[in-house]
Amino acid sequence: MGGMGPAPKDPSQRARRNATPASTRLPFTRATPPDLPSDFEWHPMTQNWWKVWQTSAMSELMSEVDWMYMLDTALMHHQMWANGHWTLAAEVRLRVAAFGATPADRLRLRIQWADADKRDEDIPQMVPVPARERFGGLTVVDFGQGGVVDRGPGGDGGGNDS
User: Fold this and answer.
1) Which of 92, 48, 85 is nearest to 70 (CA)?
2) Apex CA 84: angle with CA 78 and CA 88, to 5°?
3) Secondary structure letter of residue 41 according to DSSP
4) Quick one: the chain helix, strand, coil %, rounded to 5?
């Protein structure tokens, strides 16, 4: 006898098949991070923000198109700081998230620092110590009877005194 509920759908009729979607592979050309255009007076916060992006590790993954997108984002960043247009902050946040601005963004994008594995290797490995060595000197006390129940190895034979 079968289980409860309707019979499963025919696999050819399922909407979700968990198949790997096809992707297009393109050659990557890393772009040299450009300077902000000099024919515009940029807010100092935007100048600092741009320098951070230029020198960040994420800039290694950016193409010329990405830098053009970031230039548009820089203009929004400038408007935000120079003119108090704080409603642009949400858009700036979304745009920089696409490039891994925060630790959470990098997790979502599956970006990992190259030296993370090296740092893991530098952590001293714990050598397991047998429980008798770690806890051998402890004495178990039965507070209900007020006496020592077990003195452990080297005591009275390690047995129960009750």
Assistant:
1) 92
2) 65
3) -
4) 45, 5, 50
Could you tell me if 126 and 117 are in contact, meaning their C-beta atoms sit under 8 angstroms apart? no
Give residue 152's pLDDT.
55
Please enumerate in sequence order all residues whose Cβ is within 8 A of that of 118, keeping only pairs 6 or more positions apart, or say none. Answer: none
- Averaged pLDDT for residues 50-72: 95
C-alpha–C-alpha distance, residues 156 and 162, integer Å? 12
Q: For residue 59, give the amino acid letter.
A: S
Strand ranges in the chain using DSSP code E only, listed in sequence order? 140-142, 147-150
Which residue is listed with tokens 């098949």? 17
pTM comes to 0.59
Selection from 4, 9, 79 nearest residue 46 by Cα: 79
Residues in contact with 14: Cβ distance below 8 Å, sequence separation at least 6, in sequence order: none
Q: Work out the number of other CB atoms within 10 angstroms of the CB of residue 20.
A: 5
Helices (H), ranges, the chain: 44-55, 64-83, 89-97, 103-108, 116-122, 131-135
DSSP summary character for residue 102:
S
Determine the average pLDDT of the residues in 46-59: 95
Residue entry with tokens 């000099």: 38
